[in-house]
Amino acid sequence: MIDPKLLRQSADDVAANLARRGFEFDVDEWRAHEEIRKSAQMQTEALRAERNSSARKVGAAKARGEDVAGLLASVKDLGDQLQAAEEQLQKAQFALQSIELGLPNLLLDDVPDGFDESANCEVLKWGTPRTFEFETRDHVDIGAGLGLLDFDAASRISGSRFAVLHGPLARLQRALIQFMLDVHTAEHGYSETYVPYLVQSQALMGTGQLPKFGADLFKTDNETPFYLIPTAEVPVTNLLRDTIVEADVLPLKYVAHTPCFRSEAGSYGKDTRGMIRQHQFEKVELVQLVAATESSDALEALTGHAEVILQRLELPYRKVILCAGDIGFGSSKTYDLEVWLPGQNAYREISSCSNYRDFQSRRMGARWRNPESGKPELLHTLNGSGVAAGRALVAVMENYQQADGSISVPAALQPYMAGQKSIRKN
RNA sequence: GGAGAGGUGGCAGAGUGGUCGAAUGUACCUGACUCGAAAUCAGGAGUACCGUUACCGGUACCGUGGGUUCGAAUCCCACCCUCUCCGCCA
Predict the structure, then answer these.
(1) What is the CATH topology of the domain spanning A26-101?
(2) Does nucleic acid strand B have an atom less than 7 angstroms from the CB of A38?
(3) Which of A296, A351, A352, A361 is flagged as catalytic?
C-alpha cells in the first residue's frame, strides 16, 4: 500500500510514477472519495464527541439523583445522525481502501522504462554456456531417457503441470535444497524457518497477492478458506504482522524451503513442456526485514546471496533489472536471475529478488522502534528466490548432461549425494 | 469430535452498565539521593487516525463481528483462538 499521507499530499506525482508501469490511477475518482471521507470523518467524530459528553452528563445527573428526562430528550436525534454519518464514513473508507489496495508500489528512479521483458536491462553475465560436442537434449528427454522423470504418471494422478521424480533425480532436487539452505544459513546469516503452507486471506493481503490476484491461487472450500502458499514469502514475511520489534533484532533474515502452489491461470499454452511451469514446485526463499535506510543495500546483498548458489553450481546466468512494465505489483525494484538452459537455448528466470520497501509492511503493520525517535516505524521488506529448486534441477540436468544420456553431479552437490558423481541409467 | 475453563496495555493481573484508555504489581524511560551502582523517592510512558500544528483538542481500540442502551471492557447473539480432560491420530 502506498502511504496515504503521500497520496493526499501529491496524488498526481504518485499517478505519474504508476503510469510508468502502464497503470492508470484515476486521481479524480480517488480525490472525490477522499473528500467525502474527510468531511464524514470530521462529522462522525464531532457527533461522537457530543454523544460522549452528553452521556457523561446523564450519568452525572443520575448520580446526583436528578431528573434526566430533559437531557435524554435533547440527545434524541443524535443517534440517528451519528448512524447516518458513520454509514457514510464507512462507505467512503471502503471505497478508498479498495482503490488503495489495488495500487501497485511506487517504482524507484533507477528502474528502467519499458512495457515488457524486452526492455529489461542486463546488468551482468556470469559464466560461459558450455559448448556441446553432441546434440543436446532438454530435461524432459534426459529425464525420460534415465527413466527418472515421469509426466504421464503425474498427469494420471493430478493432471497437467505436475511431475513425478524418481530415485537419484528426486534425491538431486533434495540435494539442491539442502545445499542452498546450508549456504544461506552458514555463510549468509539467514535463519532457517519452517512455516505453514496453508494461510488465510489476511496474510495474502499483507504481502499483496490479495485482493487483486486471487485467481493465481489455490483455495480450499472451508468456511474460512485456506490458500496454498504461492511462495514462502507469504508466511515468512507475515511473521512480523502486527508487531513492533526492537532495533537490535534487525536486520531479520529468514530462509525457508517450501513447496509453492500456483494455479497458473491464464498461462495456457505457455511452457507446457517439462517442469518449467508447474502447479507445485520447490523453492528456497530468502526474506529480509530491515530499517528503511538499509533496504537498498539489502537488495544488492540478497541478490548476491542467490547468485552465489548459481556460481557454486557453476551454472551460467545473467542478472537483469526488470523494467517498469515487467516488474511485480508490490515491488519497487526487482532483479531477476536467469539461468542458461541449453535445452531451450535461452536464459530463463530462476530467481526474482525484490525490494518492497514499506509496501507490504504498511499492509500488515510490521514495524520496528527507532531508538532515535522512540517511535514505531515501518520496516522495509525484501525477498528473493535463493533459488527455485525445480528450475535449478532443470538447469543442472541440461547443463550437466553427457553424450551417453547421463547427468554429472555438480561438485557442490556431491556431498549431498553420498559422493555420487553421476546419474546414469541403472 | 465430546466436556469444561478462559481471552484486558511488554508481562502479570483487577475491573459485571456512568470522568475506565482502563486500578495495582512488574519491566521500561527521566530526574533526585550516590564517587558509581543497588535500594528508595518523584515524575513519565500504549497504538492508530482527524483537526491545529507553539501548545493542544477530538475519535477509535479490553479476541473478532453484530446487537441492546442516552452511555458497553462490563449485558445479549454469532464466530475465532488458547488451555485442561476424554476420544482419535503422525
Answers:
(1) Helix Hairpins (1.10.287)
(2) yes
(3) A352
